[in-house]
């Protein structure tokens, strides 16, 4: 190709976008019917490189349109407009057990997209591309404000949408890994919600045991939202992931302070001691530690720690008392929590109590535990630090890449529609 014809050109539109927006990737000015590889590369904040690539053949005009043309190989097959994002994996030779997560939401993921001659499966860093472009992928939209919160004894980060408000509020609860995880709250604020990412399982918050946080901590966080001048105090939801689901359900039923307008519960369970603090929950889980399993690669499987679903009502949240709409997002191949079994038991409990109409279940086959925002990579297993003991393991999360990533996209759209209906609409 050198010296023959115009230089190839790669276009990425938009060049700056939210992580839940789709991209258009076009390659132009190629020779007709040329085999090429379109490659995406991301350098994470942890210093690791992630990549994805597809094999294409230019059309009679010398063009490749990733949104319409089929990949015949690489890290994904077929017509996959966002395959360059969701099929990313660590490059060969990377450290084991990696998971891609955004830490600093003030900066984007910068994704370098290149086109190479021929169908390649490796050796990208040693090959000169025909053309390159950069796509910025943001969790925090322009105008969103990030505010550290330390009042009332809580620690978290508040994300405020641009504009005068008042806005609906969201209390965002992550799971057993602990720490302050902000990227989902930043993304929700970009969609018009005042979102509080709460830190509740870090030793700085909970003491060395990381177990004694009680209802008053979550109630204080809920009040921070209620009392904020940009929040409509009657329109506050809770969003729980994994262990955060147990907390959200428990607070919705038993707290006299927390009265959420609706709940979104992702990859979680209602199994926990009634009115228990975190120490009660951990004690209950430890009773079943003998049920821990390991796969052939010595990855830990925790889903059996809460099985079988108990008949004793004192060991699970009485979801029959829930008085607000609930969306359950369930991965049917969840290897970390018994999400499917819990969802079925919750459905039965709520139907018996006469509030089954409040429950919506979005259940996805071949989908694992880590149901993240759309177009982010599926991670079947990764290193995991247990917050309660500060021990490091490799956890099996489950899921198969293509159906899992399809589920992430669908679940996110269902979540946004659910929140819009119950927090923004004037009619239920």
TrEMBL record:
Gene3D superfamilies: Acyl-CoA thioester hydrolase/BAAT N-terminal domain (2.60.40.2240), alpha/beta hydrolase (3.40.50.1820). The active site is at residues 242, 334, 369. Belongs to the C/M/P thioester hydrolase family. It comes from the Eukaryota. Residues 20-151 form the Acyl-CoA thioester hydrolase/bile acid-CoA amino acid N-acetyltransferase domain. Transmembrane segments: none annotated. Residues 216-424 form the BAAT/Acyl-CoA thioester hydrolase C-terminal domain. InterPro entries: AB_hydrolase_fold (IPR029058), Acyl-CoA_thioEstase_long-chain (IPR016662), BAAT_C (IPR014940), Thio_Ohase/aa_AcTrfase (IPR006862), Thio_Ohase/BAAT_N (IPR042490). It comes from Coilia grayii (Gray's grenadier anchovy). This is Acyl-coenzyme A thioesterase 4-like.
